[in-house]
Amino acid sequence: MDLHTILLIGHIIGVALGAGGATTSDFLFLSVLRNGRIEKAEFRLLKVASGIVIGGLILLIATGIGLVILNGTVSHRFFAKMTIVFIATLNGGLMHARLFPLLQKSAHKQQLFHFNGLAQRMPRISVFGAISAVSWYAALILGAWRSLSLGYAQILVGYLALLTVTMIGVMAGTYWLLAKHAPTVSRPKRDRRRQTAVRHKPQHAKSTAN
Predict the structure, then answer these.
(1) DSSP state, 192?
(2) What is the dihedral sign for C-alpha 101, 107, 109, 112?
(3) Which of 131, 142, 46, 61 is nearest to 90 (CA)?
(4) Average of per-residue pLDDT values in the chain
(5) Which 8-state DSSP code applies to residue 72?
(6) Spatial distance between the Cα atoms of 47 and 174, rounded to a whole number of angstroms
(7) pTM, 2 dp
(8) Going by C-beta distance under 8 Å and a sequence separation of 6 or more, which residues neighbour residue 75?
(9) Whole-angstrom distance between the N-terminal and C-terminal Cα of the chain?
(10) In angstroms, rounded to a whole number, what is the distance separating the alpha carbons of residues 141 and 162?
(11) 88 C-beta neighbours (distance < 10 Å), count
(12) Over the stretch 29-75, which tens digit does the pLDDT of each residue have?
């Protein structure tokens, strides 16, 4: 087995790890949204999935650089794929810096998102998952579609269009899930007694007048 084959196999494994980790993270995030809270075990699984994505990124970038050095030329498809991987890398860095501390804090306190202020931020947070999923599956498709004849700009335009549609859909779906599974907050007994007294007061006044 020559060096080119070894690098190519490692490259494919890197993409598969990244896509698999991103898919696992998205399903975990969907489960968290349905429950309206994140458990400590779910946060640990999310960190494991994130670690798989990071491992895939390192392997993908290392083997990609090796293939470029070995081949000496870069196709439009390969260059577009690595650009998308770079976007996924930036998205992963922002996710670790901004999203994970919030989820860790919420998991530690065991609070519902509607009660700790995260519910209002979840639609924007869900954009991270959309970018990750679209980017990794785009890289996976570009790696397998060797007969693709589109240029670099055309591939990126298609990727950005798909990314925009997915982001809008994910944000809308997150709003819907949060509204559907929002907890019902019971009124205090004092408020319920006051409403009961107000509701019966006109009837009492009417009977007295008669």
Answers:
(1) H
(2) positive
(3) 131
(4) 80
(5) S
(6) 21
(7) 0.73
(8) none
(9) 102
(10) 13
(11) 25
(12) 878 777 777 888 888 888 898 889 889 888 988 988 888 888 777 78
Cα dihedral across residues 97, 99, 104, 109: positive or negative: positive
Strand, helix or coil at 182?
coil
Residues 184 and 30: their CA atoms lie apart, in Å, by 21
Alpha helix stretches (DSSP H) within 72-99? 76-94
Q: Which amino acid is at 156?
A: L
CA distance 180 to 185: 14
Cα Rg of the chain, angstroms: 25
Give the DSSP H or E segment for 118: none
Q: How far is CA 203 from CA 24, 68, 91, 104, 118, in A?
A: 59, 85, 62, 53, 44
Single-letter amino acid, residue 24: T
Structure tokens at 168: 């809008």
Q: Identify which of 130, 140, 145, 128 has the alpha carbon closest to the alpha carbon of residue 19.
A: 140
